[in-house]
Design goal:
It catalyses: Couples ATP hydrolysis with the unwinding of duplex DNA by translocating in the 3'-5' direction; ATP + H2O = ADP + phosphate + H(+). The protein is α/β, with parallel strands linked by helices. It contains 22 helices and 30 strands. The protein binds adenosine-5'-triphosphate and zinc ion (ZN) (2 copies). One zinc ion binds next to loops.
Length: 758
Amino acid sequence: MEVAKVIIDQNSHHTDRPFDYKIPGELREAVKVGSRVQVTFGKGHKKMEGYVLGVKDIEKPRYTIKNLQGVVQNVPPLSELQIDMILWMKKTYLCTYMEAISAVAPPKAYGNIKEKKDVYVRRKISSEKLESQLEKTPNNAKRQREILQYFLEEEELLLKSLPGIKSLYKNAVNALEKKGILEVIEKEKASKLLSMKSPSNPPRVPLTTEQKKALETMKEGFQQTQQNGVKGKTYLLHGVTGSGKTELYLGLIEKALEMGKTAIVLVPEISLTPQTMERFTARFGEAIALIHSSLTLKERYHEWEKIQQGKAKIVIGARSAIFANLENLGMIVVDEEHEYTYKSEQNPKYHAIEIAKYRSEKEGAQVILGSATPSVESYYRGEKGIYELISLDRRVTKHQLPQVEMVDMREELDVGNLSMISGSLKSQIEENLKNRGQTILFLNRRGFSTFLSCKKCGYVEKCQDCDITMTYHLPSDELICHYCGKKKKPITECPDCGSTTIKHFGYGTQKLEKNIENLFPQARILRMDVDTTTEKGAHEKVLNAFKNREADILIGTQMISKGLDFPGVTLVGIIAADSILNLPDFRASERTFQLLTQVAGRAGRGEDLGSVVLQTYKPEHYSIEEAIKQDYVGFYKREIGLREAFEYPPFTALYLVNLMGEDEDKVYNTAIKISKGIRYILKNEGHSDCLEECILGPNPSVITKINKNYRYRILLKNINIDKQLLKKVLKYVCINKRKQFVPDEVNLSIDFNPYSII
Ligand SMILES: Nc1ncnc2c1ncn2[C@@H]1O[C@H](COP(=O)(O)OP(=O)(O)OP(=O)(O)O)[C@@H](O)[C@H]1O
Ligand SMILES: [Zn+2]
Ligand SMILES: [Zn+2]
């Protein structure tokens, strides 16, 4: 008898195993490994869906087995490669089957979406004939007359754009259709996707010597891989800002297509700008599928369908595009490889580069990791020869990297300048406005002021549900929690001491905008942050306006820090360079250096030389010193020494166990039980000497509460312990013994190589 092993589509660790279902004779043809199927589940015979991960033949079962109910139509079965990846992810990230399937499979709505069409009304006769029709139409056929009026000038109109599309009007339109005057037609809804043009073959820029050499090396590597059928190589392309990395990606993809292969290009969500897309579509046209989070379900469906049907040869997208089910995958490009958005914050907490490397090994694809500021781990691998390191040290344009001027804001205070803009930055903006150059001002904090506090007793307004201060926003005049989004009216009286001396502290982009408006009333200013880009397409609008020089100054958060290529920008001002330096996180220095170098890199990309003003309270910090020099390798050398000394990645692997729940005692007790369990087993394995260094915590997380949930964490480091052993113990305690250790009210998740440990 044929039995299917089915994973039930329900995200609970209680049902996280394959269940057996008999494949009835009539379904034998339809059910395949990977099919999405209908089943009944549990004592209540609840109707559910699930995925077949395997089929086996058994003699006589010792227990009763339910029948499979059917196969879900229009959902393509998971491929063999996808199933392999699901099993590998489950093992690697200790997630549930369903979590792995949800990450790998196309969106669930795939195949369930009805094609929505737009209904149009079109005139079938000439406008002269229509005019005489109108004369013939009696006055009491009011609606028909009204509709005909419209078509005197128009040939085709959307039905819903006619006045009050009530059934009465529809009747009138139907009557006119019967008379042969109008016709009703349905058209596929116009897609809001960036329109995919056919390749326009723009003139190719001749590559610089440096670019050529890099491209040749990577092409040769690719050719070898393809000919010898060995597993794909990983290249780390370290090229300074504006060194023309994208041009190399295009060349490599072209090579892959020539050899009958396909390609995936990952870009951070925020760089999915029309600017980037244009460069790809100009070269490859309709062979591209685009995947990112602001697509509607229908748009997403279309893009996945293109991939599924083999129409797409190149997939460009944010993190999840790494799972694109392309056949003959030959090339994976990860642009801005250091970007933290490549790490998933949901289970499975994978990093897109980890998946890229898995696919590279399985499918023989070549991986290109590109960045001006590679992650410390990637560069370390480059140095060790695990990746092949390729460097582009020069910009393609005539000017080299911009000069960075450092302003010590403590000295500004000394001379009585209390504002957020130093004397030097102010005069340079003035000068730049005069010369009609564009300016970018970067401040990595949105809102108006950072927090409200009582001057008398020091009370600070915090979110009730999260352990963080609330940010004051204009023009809505409200406090917003940047973690859970809750809003409230600002206090005018201190709830602790009753004083009315409530003061604003800190500043964000809204306040910066106000200040700049006051200082330079003649300047045209744009602001780009989460608050100005909530609407679909708003992001592009701002960037396009700036590109078309409709504004002189662009103010923004990290949204404007990378990938943008505006030749008109000759001045970049960094308002508070040390804003994230104080985060209690081992990556704070790295992130600071990356952010500053990327922002600085937006200046001087055109005809004119660029300059950068960097304001800081900590000029002596090495991240800032090296960012001023824009010297990646200099930064890397200092950072890698510290990572080794303090036993952080890449020298140790970090495993983070997060525990969360509304009942703080329960969360804490669970954390204690788990850490005790881990310690106990490791002790029995003979590791009593290193437990202190290896298992840190449980401790409350840095942000102790988010959205009413208390957070505790246990951090594991593999110091003097085999990584695999540590992982095995973790799996045993957190997964196998979960029922025993973790009550249902406490959420446990495991993060391997966490991006941040806040
Ligand atoms: N060989 C070349 N000659 C002239 N212009 C070039 C050449 N190569 C690239 N460019 C242009 O230079 C600009 C910068 O290139 P690109 O955006 O690829 O740099 P990048 O290395 O990705 O920069 P960043 O990391 O700062 O985003 C683009 O406008 C690109 O069209
Ligand atoms: Zn007070
Ligand atoms: Zn909150």
